[in-house]
């Protein structure tokens, strides 16, 4: 990544930037907000106001989102206490699928959580699970110019100290309070995004490692209810399935054309 200087776009954010610099991650431009409708819309506005140069990653962090969204436009609950972040990254793999990009970020984030001793599974295509409960989710998109990736965008939600809905879990339920400080995990997510850019150059390893962490050995077709056995992940991030002699695959994400961001 580029070696652009740290840029502090909101006051009172020096400790997070200091932590990143101490770990060698000094290229980030950060915008941190108290409350916003959506970090995704804030990032889009920022990219319009200051067009993408491709040199330095950017991230918008919010203490609380009131209109966050996840897959299929579902509401993304984002109360105080969690990491709610949208980032723009210069992606080193210029020919990549959105599915593989999302899995690469999920793997890098899983590594950060696993460094605490927790065991993490990846629920294809974009959730991190602990004990069959959702800990985190990622929402990937790639912007293309022709056939080449111009810009990678990712939304991340990680439950830390926030209340969670049924079926979810937070880190405060699993770790001691000293290991659940929000600033620590905001930095961990940004480091995971840096790590994802490194992993992008090793797609075969990403697929192998993601397969080892898959949450379930079988899945149900949401349309028909049919059960399919998971046989792996394709190099484009597809979920590969079989049912007796039948074979199929699922993909989830669509790619975006250049939007002059």
Keywords summarizing the entry:
261 residues; BirA Bifunctional Protein, domain 2; 2 domains; globular; disordered N terminus
What report would you give on this structure?
- This protein is an alpha+beta fold and 261 residues long.
- The chain folds into two domains: 7-216, BirA Bifunctional Protein, domain 2, CATH 3.30.930; 219-250, no CATH class.
- It is built from five helices and 13 strands.
- The chain has helices at residues 14-22, 39-49, 98-114, 182-199, 203-212; strands spanning 7-8, 29-36, 58-65, 83-89, 121-123, 127-130, 133-145, 148-158, 218-220, 227-233, 239-243, 246-250, 256-257.
- The strands form two sheets. Strands 1, 2, 3, 4, 5, 6, 7, 8 and 13 form a nine-stranded mixed sheet that branches. A four-stranded antiparallel sheet has the order 9-10-11-12.
- Mean pLDDT is 88; it is low at 1-12.
Number of helices: 5
Q: Would you tell me the structural class of the helices and strands?
A: alpha+beta
Care to count the β-strands?
13
Provide the helix percentage: 10-25%
Bulk shape: globular
Sheet of most strands: 9 strands, mixed
CATH homologous superfamily name of the largest domain?
Bira Bifunctional Protein, Domain 2
Cα gyration radius (Å): 18 Å
CATH class of the largest domain: Alpha Beta
Total domain modules: 2
Strand content: 25-35%
* Mean pLDDT figure: 88
Low-confidence stretches: 1-12
CATH topology call of the largest domain: BirA Bifunctional Protein, domain 2
What is the level-2 CATH architecture name of the largest domain?
A: 2-Layer Sandwich
Distance between the termini: 19 Å
The string of secondary-structure elements, in order, is EHEHEEHEEEEHHEEEEE
């Amino acid at each position: 990544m580029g070696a652009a200087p740290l840029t502090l776009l909101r006051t009172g954010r020096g400790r997070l930037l200091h932590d990143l610099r101490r770990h060698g991650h000094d290229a980030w431009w950060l915008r941190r907000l108290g409350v916003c409708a959506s970090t995704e819309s804030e990032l889009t506005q920022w990219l319009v106001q200051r067009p993408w140069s491709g040199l330095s990653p950017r991230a918008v962090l919010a203490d609380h989102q009131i209109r966050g969204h996840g897959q299929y436009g579902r509401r993304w609950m984002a109360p105080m206490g969690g990491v709610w972040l949208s980032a723009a990254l210069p992606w080193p793999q210029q020919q990549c699928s959105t599915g593989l990009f999302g899995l690469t970020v999920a793997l890098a984030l899983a590594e950060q959580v696993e460094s605490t001793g927790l065991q993490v599974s990846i629920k294809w295509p974009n959730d991190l699970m602990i004990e069959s409960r959702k800990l985190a989710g990622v929402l990937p998109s790639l912007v293309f110019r022709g056939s080449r990736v111009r810009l990678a965008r990712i939304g991340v939600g990680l439950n830390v100290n926030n209340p969670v809905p049924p079926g979810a879990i937070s880190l405060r339920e699993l770790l001691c309070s000293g290991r659940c400080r929000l600033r620590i995990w905001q930095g961990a997510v940004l480091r995971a995004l840096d790590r994802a850019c490194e992993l992008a150059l090793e797609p075969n390893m990403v697929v192998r490692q993601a397969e080892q962490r898959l949450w379930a050995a079988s899945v149900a077709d949401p349309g028909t209810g049919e059960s399919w056995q998971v046989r792996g992940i394709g190099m484009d991030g597809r979920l590969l399935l079989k049912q007796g002699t039948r074979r199929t695959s699922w993909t989830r994400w669509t790619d975006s054309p250049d939007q002059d961001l």
